[in-house]
Amino acid sequence: MLTEVFIVDFCWHSPYKRALRQIKGKEYEDIIKLCTDEINIPSSTHMAEALLLRATFYLLRGEMNCAMEDFEQLLAMDSVDKHVSILKCISLVNSNLGALACDAGW
User: Fold this and answer.
1) To 10 degrees, the CA torsion angle through 9, 15, 17, 22?
2) What is the dihedral of CA 17, 20, 26, 27, to 10 degrees?
3) DSSP 14
4) How far apart are CA 76 and CA 81, in angstroms?
5) Residues 29-38: contacts with CB within 8 Å, 24+ apart?
6) Contacts by residues 19-23 (CB-CB < 8 Å, ≥ 24 positions apart)
7) How confident is the model at residue 105 (pLDDT cuts 50, 70, 90)?
8) DSSP collapsed to 3 states, 38-103
9) Tell me: the pLDDT tens digits for 3-21?
10) pLDDT, tens digit, 9 for 90 and up, residues 36-86
11) CB 19: neighbour CB atoms within 10 A?
C-alpha cells in the first residue's frame, strides 16, 4: 500500500509531468528547467520524452546547439527505437513549432 502511494505520488510530481501540465496551461517559462530536472533523475522513466521536449523548446528559443545535443542524446539511447525517435522529433517540431512560438510570444 505504501509503495503504491509512493509510485502515484512520484508520478504526479514528476518534473516532466509538471512540464506537460504547464504546457496545457500555456505556461512556458519553466519547461526547460523542468525537463532538465527530469533528465537529472537517474531512474527517470520519462528521460526520452524530457529530452525531446527540452530540445523542442531550445529550438523555439533559437538555441540550436543545445537542441542538437538533446536530439543526439535521444538518438543515442539504447532504449529508444531509432525510427520512432526520428519520427517523434520530426512530427513534434513540425506540428508544434509555430503554435508554441505564437503562444509563447517568440
Assistant:
1) 120
2) 40
3) -
4) 10
5) 31/57, 32/57, 32/58, 32/61, 38/14
6) 19/50, 19/53
7) low
8) HHCCCCCCCHHHHHHHHHHHHHHCCCHHHHHHHHHHHHHCCCCCHHHHHHHHHHHHHHHHHHHHHH
9) 443 443 445 589 999 999 9
10) 999 999 989 899 899 989 998 998 898 988 988 998 888 888 877 766 666
11) 27
Q: Cα separation of 77 and 86, whole Å?
A: 12
Residues with Cβ within 8 Å of 16's Cβ and at least 6 positions away in sequence, in order, are: 34, 35, 38, 44, 46, 49, 50, 53
> Which structural domains are found in the chain, ordered by start?
2-104 (1.25.40)
Q: Which residue has the cell 529550438?
A: 59
Copy the grid coordinates of residue 23.
504546457
